[in-house]
Amino acid sequence: MDRLPPLTPLPRSFYERDPVTVARALLGQHLVSGSRSSRITEVEAYLGQDDPAAHSSRGVTPRTRVIFETTGHAYVYLIYGLHLCLNVTCERPGTAGCVLIRAVADVNGPGRLTKAFGIGRQHNGADLTVPGPLFIAAGPEPAGVLVTPRIGIRMAADKLLRFVAQEP
């Protein structure tokens, strides 16, 4: 993982956009957790209530409340009873949208990422726009972006909403 000088979190306005725009813009940014940081290299966009693969498609629940209430916050959840995943909320309060961070430069897979970065359920709802134990800071734009269908889902699996940073 990269060792970087102190970094400044991205502003809330970065996240106040649609999930596809935020997903593409997250590529190359630095995920920071404690003293660890690494460039984000793979993400997936989830489009809110109109996206059957999104947790928010069923509306507000205790689990999904953070997606509807806040922008630029962490949404951390358990999948398959084994792995935690990190999403960032986007859009505007009251409108669901989020982006799954699937990989960083030196860790592939969303479950491995949260484990390597020490991200747990205690980070659910964390404000990523302020310096703290978990945030995202500016990084270099990738040379290119590969766009593919999302992976590991059954509903709306054909949508081209997975974005992977391509380096020269």
Explained architecture:
- By secondary structure, the protein is of the alpha+beta class.
- The chain has a single domain, classed as Methylpurine-DNA glycosylase (MPG) (3-methyladenine DNA Glycosylase, Chain A).
- It is 14% helix and 30% strand.
- Strands 1, 2, 3, 4, 5, 6, 7, 8 and 9 form a nine-stranded antiparallel beta sheet that branches.
- Strand 1 and strand 2 (36-46) form a beta hairpin.
- The longest helix is centred in the N-terminal third of the chain and has 8 residues, at 19-26.
- The protein starts with 11 loop residues before the first helix and ends with a strand.
Offer a concise description of the structure.
The protein is an alpha+beta fold.
Major beta sheet summary: 9 strands, antiparallel
Question: How much helicity do the residues have?
Answer: 10-25%
Basic shape = globular
Tell me the structural class: alpha+beta
Low-confidence stretches: none
Topology:
Elements lengths: L11 H4 L3 H8 L3 E4 L2 E11 L18 H5 L4 E6 L3 E7 L8 E7 L2 E2 L1 H7 L17 E4 L6 E5 L13 E5 L2
Antiparallel strand pairs: 1-2, 1-7, 2-5, 2-9, 3-4, 4-5, 5-6, 8-9
Keywords:
globular, 168 residues, nine-stranded antiparallel sheet, 4 helices, 3-methyladenine DNA Glycosylase, Chain A, 30% strand, alpha+beta
